[in-house]
From TrEMBL:
Record's protein name: Alcohol dehydrogenase GroES domain-containing protein [Catenulispora acidiphila DSM]
Hydrolase listed as a keyword: no
Keywords: NADP
Keyword S-adenosyl-L-methionine: no
SMART domains to which the protein is assigned, alphabetical: PKS_ER (SM00829)
Residue ranges constituting the Enoyl reductase (ER) domain according to the UniProt record: 8-324
Coiled coil: none
Amino acid sequence: MRAAVLTAYNSPLQLVELADPVPGPYEVLVRVMASGVNPLDIKIRHGQAAHAQVSPPAILGIDMAGVVQAVGSQVDRFRVGDEVFGMTGGVGGLQGSLAELVAVDAQLIAPKPAALSMVEAAAIPLGFITSWEGLVDRADVRAGQTVLVHGGAGGVGYLAVQLAIARGARVFATGSRASQDVIGRTGATPIDYTASTVDDYVGTYTGGEGFDIVVDNVGGATLDASFTAVKRYTGHVVSALGWGEHSLAPLSFRGATYSGVFTLMPLLTGDRRDHHGAVVAEAAALADAGKLVPRLHSTTYPLEAADEAHAVVENGAATGKVIVTPDR
């Protein structure tokens, strides 16, 4: 098979020929039709993501959609020819999806939604699983609640907005002035964070009470702002970027709660991988019901242009999820 290999940090990806992987008893061999590029991939390339546990040489690529080519002896959920998708590797020593073939733990994947193409399906797993773990597993989002999503036009936020709406919440999302129309098309109320203070939008949209759930997809000062935007006593802030130093005093003074999300953990530890598979199955159901649609970059890239795809993400030029199509 061909694969794009990171041979050293801060170096171009090398297109090489490697032996085809052989699936283990609990794995399936997938021909990769589409591989999603995430900001984490860029951090890994630069040696800035120790938590991802990647050392060159490595094949990156966390999100995947493709077709099952072979099935391990202990796998009974999938058959050759099945179209599948999931968040399957690229961290913790697991082969990523920037290759023509990959052997993946069958627990991590689900049937691809019929309503979506391979390219569309590969744009979903990491962002949706992160959103689900925050909104559903941690905060138990439900009908009638108010939800604020920071970064509503981003790779995670765009899916988080749709998930919260699908579960009956009233959703508001922050973004730049240029992203207001994109956010509005999801059904959320857009908030231009460059033109409104936290007090402004909390007052306007919640009467000063605060939001039931605040989803932080930005980190840093935005997480600090989340602590003052959440409802007193019952409010819940969730973040996948709760790094650095933060004062919990504003949150404590509101009597609210905080939960961190670390989406990579099942890939790194092997624990709860079946939950990842169950969550992407939920994503497929929502997509097939017309309630979940990814936002894609205007161009897809062949495997030999994986460096170009990474550059688009790194330079902030992406207009949606960037996808590489390894299959020839």
